[in-house]
Amino acid sequence: MRKALIVWGGWLGHQPKEVAEIFREVLENEDFEVEVSDTLQAFSDAEKLKSLDLIIPAWTMDRIDQQLVNNVSAAVQSGVGLAGCHGGMCDAFRENVDWQFMTGGNWVAHPGNDAVEYTVNIANSSSPLVDGLEDFRVKSEQYYLHVDPAVEVLATTRFPTVPGPHSLNKIVDMPIAWTKRWGVGRVYYNSLGHQANIIEMPVVKEMMRRGFLWCAEGKALAQAQGTKAAAYTGMADSQL
Questions:
Q1: Which residues contact residue 48 at a Cβ distance below 8 angstroms, ignoring those fewer than 6 apart?
Q2: Which of 50, 125, 145, 212 is least enclosed, having the fewest CB within 10 Å?
């Protein structure tokens, strides 16, 4: 049975506990064994993390010990999937650039706050993660992010939507959902999900479900292909 760890906490305005419960249900319906924790010390056992198939952070605006980031990074580099949404993953630890490098981006603004109605544009991609999905409207925070140019973009939204200091710049199609690789691990992020009601939207929940499954499949595929994480990290197998 595949194993997943969900770690929730930080700023409670993002309803991390409620979002974690939705994610637990999604994963259990896909026959995962799911552990849910409300402490960052869940990242302290490096070997346990490497035994998982998927790690889901739902933790916003906090600080984290560097060793805990190193443990998660090493697990993902070895093949464990990493997936999350909104501030729970890409506004988790603003002071930690290693976390930002691994996850593929970091929140910097949401002009208009939580009352912006905007379109999510599904990217023209061969990725199965967006197969059959269509553009949709959402009323929520519209995340402006600083994004790793290495990511594969799966969905975007157009800025500016509301007036602000950014309005006189050219039109920007900001990534909403993306994937990237970290070592031989797979990473998925979706900027939707300010609160649990957005995650409960059928299309958003489906995007997250697909992202979870895609990330969790990476470890087994890397092992089947005989891919060694050390080839991508410069680290010896004993260090991973």
A1: none
A2: 125
The per-residue pLDDT for range 7-33, each reduced to its tens digit, is: 999 999 999 999 999 999 999 999 999
Strands lying side by side in the sheet with 81-85: 33-37, 3-10, 54-60, 81-85, 185-190, 172-182, 152-159, 116-122, 136-140
The topology under which CATH files domain 3-106+179-239 is Rossmann fold (3.40.50)
Model pLDDT for residues 157-209, shown as the tens digit of each residue: 999 999 999 999 999 999 999 999 999 999 999 999 999 999 999 999 999 99
**Beta carbons of 6 and 35 less than 8 angstroms apart:** yes
Question: Collapsing DSSP states into helix, strand and coil, what is residue 116?
Answer: strand
Prediction pTM value: 0.95
- Spell out the domain ranges in the chain: 3-106+179-239
The pairing of strands 81-85 and 136-140 is: unpaired
